[in-house]
Amino acid sequence: MRFGIPLLCGSWFDSPASISRGESTGRPRDDRQKDLLRSALDQIIDLGHPLARLAGEIDWGFLDGRFSSVCERGPGQPRLPTRLVASLFILNHTHNLSDEVLCARWIENPYYQYFCGELSFCHELPFDRSSLTRWRQRLGEEQLLALIQESLSVAHKMGAIESKDLERVAVDTTVQPKAIAHPTDARLNHRALEKLVALAKRSGVSLRQSCLRVAKRAAIMIGRYTHAHPFRRARKALKLLRTRLGGVIRDIRRKIDGNPELEARFAPLLDLAVKVRLQDHRPRGPKDYSLHAPEVECIGKGKARAPYEFGCKVSVATPVTRPKGG
Q: Which of 105, 110, 126 is nearest to 51 (CA)?
């Protein structure tokens, strides 16, 4: 391996015993060092390049302290270095790149590698593309707020924005659409049944009957009846689907009763399944529109092309005056 002693952003050493056992210490790994057989990046690039200057201005220790809270002790390999993850997210949003394009450019761009904390030029990725997705799922409001705070601090320090530019801001809202299927009652009930049966199978919980075949048939017939307009038959098929889902929910609760580990494992999905089963077409109060993204809401913004959108409401703030840095 080309990596060795870490000295970049609050790095740590892990004991050889814990590494050999495959245990994660709950702290990001950062074991990079200069390769004696390769030229150092700071000797082959222009240190006056914007990315090189930006790398020297960012307080990586501040970001490391905020990002370390998402690292938990457990089995597996230690997490990626904090500076590498934070800098990849900054490059991703600065240049509006997808994860695939970012990884391809990272290999061929020495300035990207220097910004990410590499000491020698790398000819292959030190991480997998899927690591970005997993890190993005772990990050919460605290970590994203830290990135915003540090970006504003660096912009103010380098003169790209002044204090007077932040005195007045324009705030607007929009909808960030989610990639979910159209949330019909039949689809949600059928999907909840499938997820419960699959989780029971993985957890070793034997059900009295899974009802998958009957539920699939009922979901298909609901779509046909709704299209052909015999709505009484559609409501009857939906009632059958909800009855089968309720039977599976009660069966799982009986089988896991008294087992704290299984109860904790099934609790989130069971709560969602109960909400989906009881909610109506036009309920009073909040409604669940997706099982894998419960935060999705139905938002109407008055658009002619899209009267209703399924996603999350996003607020955007921008200075009223044009800052020096754009």
A: 110
